[in-house]
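Re: your question about Rhodopsin domain-containing protein

S., sorry for the slow reply, the queue was backed up all week. Below is exactly what I fed in.
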Amino acid sequence: MPVPGENPKLDAETAVPIIYGISIAFVCVSSIIVALRLYTRYLIVRSPGADDATIAVAQVLSIGVSIATILQANYGLGRHSWLVSPSETIAQLKSLLGAMTVYNAAQIMTKMSFLFQYRRIFQEGGRTRVVCLYLIIFLGLWGVTQEVLVCFSCQPISVFIPSQAAVCIDSLTIWYLTSIMNIITDFIVFMVPMPAIRSLQLPRRQKILVISIFCLGFFTCIISIVRLFTLRAAINTTDPTWDNVPSAYWSIVELNCGILCASLPPLRPLLRHFGLAGLSNRSSGGRDDSYAGKSVGGSFKGRKDILSPTTVGGAYVYPMTTVTSGSQDGLHVNAAEVPLSPIYQPHRKGYGGSPGSRG
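Result:
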């Protein structure tokens, strides 16, 4: 290993600004979007649910991951190992352990938020809601298991607790296992609603829109795969504080992109609330179903495809529309925009008659 001063060009290299920039930028963007989501659900449509609570927890944990990653950079991550003192190395590894455990918990909470949102959207009694419930239980159990595994991995804990070296588990094995399970559960979670959506009795354009919204999460799967390929270099290296940088910032990107994908669809009512109904209408396939603060007198003429409005918090809104399908799953198309237990007043036959239940 080189020594300080032997190669001034290498000594001058630093990835610390990259770590700071990614850690701060991504967590700020996701925090703003989650705050807007909570504002929308609690104050505009007055319809908070378990999906909002879990994504809020995931966001708090994401902030913790960013703080732990910045602390790692402060203690040597992003510099070459020969420039990092032994005391800094210990502090950096402790921050790494904190980042790993909090990161895993945040990933589990983000996936649970998606599943709770599916249960909010799909009709009670349908297969999708049952599958989501089983997956939520599985994710809870797996979340506890992976935290235990991470705490028994050789790196970094055996460095500052030498007694663990005799009982620790190979770190690369643990990191691969948790990362691969993360990717697999990502794909499962994002595939859950697809069979029900494909069989929905919706116009083609609207069905494509609904599928596109549900497919947002697959973007995080791509990032998870990219991150997976950075893990080996982070373990099998003689310069860990330098070679672990990509794994650190890709973890930040992956986690916050997952939170963003979960939080963007519920913002439609916010767009309407601030007079951006045109944008929301284009995103909904051209339907004009804006509602915020407007009288609905005459707005239902020629509109046989929607239900009667009800009043929530002084603003006219449309209750959820239940669309039945061959998969026995009903989809509440506007579930993100109205209370969880709406009053159904169908104008025509063909819409399901059972109200949605709480997610």
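Residues 8-269 form a domain with the Rhopdopsin 7-helix transmembrane proteins fold (CATH 1.20.1070). Residues 86-121 form the longest helix (36 residues).

Happy to talk it through on Thursday.
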